[in-house]
Protein 1
Amino acid sequence: MKKKLFQLLFILLMGIFLSIPLPGWAQDEEEEEIIEEEVVAKQVVSLSELATLMQADESEIILSDLEIVIGDRDTDFKVDKIFYSVYEIYPKESRAKKIYFYNCVFNTGREAPIVFNGWTFSKLNLLTCEVNSPLTFENIKTVGNYPIHIENCSFAHTLEFKNEIFELNKLQIVNSVFRKNLIVSSTTNQLFLDHCHFDADIIQYKKEDEEMTHFQMSLNYRQFGNVEINNCSFNNNGISNLFSLDFSNSNIESLRMFNDSLQSFDLSWATVEKSLLIDSLFVSDYIGILNFDFPEKNTNIPWYNFGGEKLAVFYTEKSDLIIPYQAKTNKQLSVTLDYNDLISAYTKFNTLYHDRGDITSANASYVEIKTIETRRQAYIQEINPSRNNFINHKLNVFLSSFSDYATNPGKSLIQSLKILLGFTLLYMLSFSDWDGLNYNYYLLQYRLFAKYIIKDKSVAAIYKHTVNPHQDLMQTINEKYLKKGKDIPRSLRFFGRPLHFLGMLRFEMVPNLIRLYNFQPHAWKSLNTGQKFYSGIIITLIVLSFFIYVFVVKFINAFILSLNSFVVIGFGMLPERGLAMYLSIIEGIIGWFLLTIFTITLLSQVLQGAG
């Protein structure tokens, strides 16, 4: 009996214990409820329901956490076009609306494009929305100062603003992603894009016509006020017929682009009227600039944004496929009219830089012009050779490598120094009367050193016959002029002492130091193995030191000779004989030619800076 009561009591206590929720369990249950609420928070609405919500009689209409789909009753919105169908949503009244889309998903699909047609907005915001179908705002009207604002949104298909009746006041798109394209076919007063990313969906573009060129962002054939595109990136993922930006045939009052990365940029026949500012523009392929007009006094585009032979002339075939012309292949170089159009566009920018005083950009653009010109000269020489064209082509090739077509004096100076050093090495292999290090000198030094090694004589005994050729003159100067005191002006003694010291250093002190160090007082054959090893090391060090001494002296002498020949074509009798004499004459002619080019290059840069 007691056992049964104990069992019942145990079961009762366990039931009470299990019925009390622990703090951690309660928290987990609450989190699960919250997560479930977030998952099921989106309300699924059809297009007809969306239209009803948008036309509510309220001052501000907030559409939050909605998933828009095609419903059974949405056939009234379907409009059949020639080759496709769209779902158009019209307003029932013309009153301006303030509409906010927050965290909404448009899930009608690729085959069901949504068109908001004829709406009037005093405010329209799309924030943190995901659009998985083509979306078009057609013939919409904006009133007031609030812009159409799109932020943190993702567009899987085309987003288009199409307007043939009204003009948009302000359109702002910030931190949004476009998998297909953005088309603004509407006159717009202000267009602003910042931190937007255009990342092409390869699967979608495979369904497009491959025989025409597509753009990830198009603003062509329209009038715009201020356009600003900053910190945006365009990635076509290797699709050859997909370009980035299309401004062709547009008219823009003010255009600003900063820190943008793209593949191809079309400015053909476009006009910027008041202000054009571009910097940190990274274009990997082409910039179409045929008949592109910009304000001469308020255009600031450093050439490094356009440089690298990215400028091109875009020609469109009947299928709307753009063919870029850049004068790079022989086929392109053979078309003279296209070549002239391209050079004309380059020259237009070069003139702009000269007028603005931007010498760096002017020089860089000029170098690119001359590079293209040199390439065409090579092509002409190949198909129609002539002596005049050959000389002009080779001169251009030389000017390119020597001074960047007379725009870079620093480079020409470096090239001249290389030529100086080249002739210096040639002179080092020859004999010169300047340093006295000729063949006879090497034989004499070898004989004296070898005699000291093999004979049982001291250094002093071997070198006692060496004569100082200036000994008498040095002694006379020392006794009659340096020791006379008041008889000689102090300034004269001041200049005489260094001369006497140099003579003593070369002809007296150095031999005396050698004589003091008698490292092998006995003949080589009388030395034992240890002494020979020691003497061998000393001999090796002496020989290496002699080679270093000869190299330094020869280099200094040869460099001075090369500099003399290069700058002044020698003077009087050249200190070289034989082949080296003719080398110095050749170097003199080369030096005269190169120094002339250097002088012209330097003066042109100075005059440009002064202008």
Protein 2
Amino acid sequence: MVASSLATRGPRSLLRQIREAMAGDAPAQTKLDMVVRIIAASMVAEVCSIYLRRAGGELELFATQGLSPDAVHITRLKLGEGLVGEIVRLGRPLNLKDAPHHPAFAYRPETGEDPYHSFLGVPLLRGGRAIGVLVVQNRTERNYGEEEVEDLQIIAMVLAEMVGAGDLLDREALKDVEIAPHRPERLKGVRFSDGLAYGTVVLHDHPVAPEKLLSDDAEAEATRLAAAVAALQQQIDKMLEGHHGLVGASYEVLETYRMFAHDRGWNRSLEEAVRSGLTAEAAVERVRSEHRARLGQARDPYLRERLHDLEDLNDRLLRHLYGDGHAPRELPEDAILVARNLGPADLLEYDRTRLKGLLLEEGSTASHAAIVARALDIPCVGRLAGLRDRVSQGDPVVVDAEAGEAFLRPRPDVVEALNSRLEVRAQRRAVFAGLKDTPAFTKDGAKITLLMNAGLAVDLDILGETGAEGIGLFRTEFQFMVAEDMPRLNAQRALYERVLDAANGMPVTFRTLDLGGDKLLPYMELEREENPALGWRAVRMGLDRPALLRQQLRALIWAARGRPLRVMFPLVASVDEFRAARAFVDTEVAWALRRGRPAPSRLDVGAMIEAPSLVWHLDALLPMTDFVSVGTNDLMQYLFAADRGNPRVADRYDPLSPPVLRVLKQIQDACVETGTPVSVCGEMAGRPLEAFALVALGFDRLSMPPAGIGPVKQMVLSCDREAARRGVTALLKGTSGSVRSQIETLARKLYVVA
């Protein structure tokens, strides 16, 4: 039987022995051999092995006690291959009772490991990246205890820093070991926010390894920890008191964040770790590892988001322990922020004048970081698999959010090509800025109204800078998505009032809650659905939860305070749904009047056309509405039965194809016939070539992200609408497949910037 690892000798004794072994002038291999012997003896293990990561990505056996010495520098495993490769892939420990029967087990006959069954391996992590693996094995079938796992993690933490600092191996021995990535790499991801940028990597969660892991005075460390936690809580409380100019969704983000900082479970875990003999800094790292192990593999998106919040809190707490918790995050002039994901309020804390781009390993186009990046016009690429393991602090990097790519440590020719593209974009931006106050008329005199999509408080600050003539779509659900509890009536009313005040008389169309599907709320228990995009969401949820919908309508009417109000219901699939939703509006207006509150001076109620079913029932719907808006994002995915959140199929179908253009023309013609105002508010409206097609089909109200207004206005000013109408109409007859190239050719003939 194996003893309780370091319980007998203590981790301090083991680490002291390792440091003493490293202090001599012995060759590098001799030092490594001494280290594995010391660890094996202390852990009462029959095998102890160290694997390090080569520059080519393979994991090589560098030292072993118990396996065949002939296998050293011979046995190699690819990333993800064998149990050692699996540990690097997962980034967490692997504890097995019967290792040879694990599906990832890869037998290497030269090692002679046949007799050994129990297996415990932990990654050597440095800079958030696995540079190797430390393994202990025994013949007896057993699972190693929690204390043994924790002890081995502490040892691995120290070894990783010694390897990285050159204390364990000299430069010659390390020449082919990939302590940090160094080769040029190109990663393909998903565009979250358009643009280009070139700069220096700043790791959002840049870890600083604790200089000291074991404390000599547990009480003193507990006092240090308590003081740092109190300072952290005070800092977040102060952020909320000052608001930092944030309201609505951004303010709710900080409210959620404060709750985690005061969480008793988190605080208790830190205290227990310090009482066990760790320094305050090491305690934070240990609690971080526990949360990663518990939540890192969670499939539930809410649980994964909670892990990001806790990760960021740990980083903030470490900064307080190191004495710079209140210091602003220093950025170089050309900072490219790199993170697995961003927790609440993170992006808003960085100096926007220095932050040139954002790269994320995870996230989605609907994530907090992506939404804020678009609002701030920061180029952002997400879903970059393996990103965090492939970059180091200070690396040069290119963000190509036009193509959804990142170039790590780019070659000179890539940088040269990027600079040329940046120069062209700068020239175009100057042109767009000059057009801000120019009315959007086509060359043949048709007025096109350009509106802005919004949903965050930061969007309101740039409304005047964009040249938009109002807000064509205000997404009210963001306030709900970032809150830990249901926003109360006063909180909703305050946000809507702020939006109307910022618009200063320009029209604002509020879309009621579009929740459900991929927009989950932590405080609402929702059943998992096999097809959430087709399930219980948007107006369906509102009609089934009338108190939720009525409270929002009440807040909107109250916020209007006698001003004009435009309300729009999302994902209406039947005329009966719209009729029922509109009845709630009438009920709430009557409720306000009975209590002496003014009704809106003008109340327009509309529907979003996103479900194809409405296209064939417009004759009944349009007379009941004051306006309609076409949501091309959802309409596209339903037309083609292609989930727009699935990267495998999201770009498979082209919006510039006859099915889409014919449906849009049918909607436009029906609205003209009934005199119903209609707008388009999907992504299609914000891209010049697609907007050209919309204008040609007869649409004269387009709502888009702020960055799209300048390019689309330039297109409108150079467009002959009648000529465009004739050309696009001709393309709808008897054509198969996308007509993008034909529309682009037509646009160029008409001198349109596409």
